Amino acid sequence: MDADATLSAAPQGSADRVTDLGLPTLRETAPDFPREWIEFVDPADPLGLVRADLTWLLSSWTCVYGRGCEGVVEGRPDDGCCSHGAFYADDEDRARVEGFGGQLKAKHWQYASTGRSLGVSESDELEGEPALRTRTVDGACVFLNRPGFSGGAGCALHALAERIALHPLETKPDVCWQLPVRRTQERVERADEVEVLVTTIGEFDRRGWGPGGADLHWWCSSSPAAHVGAQPLYLSYGPELVALLGQPAYDELARLCAQRVAGPAEHPATAQAADPHRSRGSRPQSGGQSTL
Questions:
Q1: Which residue spans within 193-282 are E strands per DSSP?
Q2: Based on the number of CB atoms within 10 Å of its own CB, is 72 exposed (0-12), middle (13-18) or buried (19 or more)?
Q3: Nearest residue to 97 (alpha-carbon basis) of 164, 173, 176, 160
Q4: What is the dihedral of CA 182, 57, 212, 171, to 10 degrees?
Q5: Which of 199, 216, 225, 276 is the most exposed, fewest CB within 10 Å of its CB?
Q6: How far apart are CA 169 and CA 5, in angstroms?
């Protein structure tokens, strides 16, 4: 939204500006710019509040793996964001991934022998705590088929989903299908002393990785090279957003996003002030967000 923040059009020789921002290349936008947010009560849960970054959800981001992705590690664009493996969200996530890994045949999985002999998971640390993630082999995830493999390059679990008519979110680790959307949840006490669950949906930018995010060679969510999708993100990532929010909340989010495309979000009290004859209980046509 902030044109001055876009570095992709910066002339050669402006490396000093990039250094000041802590970005590794001229191919990303600056991290701070104005954003629009929407809040609404989850239609399926009166004690659930959804906060969503409209600026991100209305963006044209799309995955460009294999067609412009520069990779998170310099010199390894073919790894995409798979260089470090994937940390499991929980035991259920691990069991599901290991189960689908067991369905892979060697002709579709380059590192089948390694995965079967050593296991597809290995121990590591996440934020100073013991954790499990997918094993890394030759510098990237054990499930990543490299270019030139006869079974095809890319995530073997993603390809498996396509072969058996599943959405990839059902076969891949949670973090893999969620990125670069970030969901956070917290319990908050309203002013009336009622506790509600606030679910926030936003962009998983470099900062989402913590201090290490600044060391990534490239990150797609802030790169114009990845904002080339034919649909806005709230549509192209519909199945993922349904999995994160539930169908009723997603339907309301999609309605509000489509409404925002047609015109600015409007506070319902402002709408009634402008039109006193509007029914107090009706849904404003140009706003519709409800707050707690």
A1: 195-203
A2: buried
A3: 173
A4: 50
A5: 276
A6: 33
Which residues have C-beta within 8 Å of that of residue 104, sequence separation ≥ 6?
112, 115, 156, 157, 160
Only one residue has tokens 């995409």, namely 80
Residue 202 CA to residue 37 CA, distance in Å, equals 9
Q: Which amino acid is at 99?
A: G
Residue with tokens 């000093």: 16
Question: Distance between CA 80 and CA 177 in Å, rounded?
Answer: 13
Residue partners of 51: CB distance under 8 A and separation at least 6? 37, 38, 39, 198, 199, 200, 201
Tens of pLDDT along the chain (292 residues) come to 333 332 222 222 222 223 333 444 447 888 898 999 999 999 999 999 999 999 999 999 999 999 989 999 999 999 999 999 999 999 999 999 999 999 999 999 999 999 999 999 999 988 888 999 999 999 999 999 999 999 999 999 999 999 999 999 999 999 999 999 999 999 999 999 999 999 999 999 999 999 899 999 999 999 988 998 999 999 999 999 999 999 999 999 999 999 998 776 666 655 766 776 655 444 434 344 433 3
Tokens for 172, please give them.
Answer: 């891949």
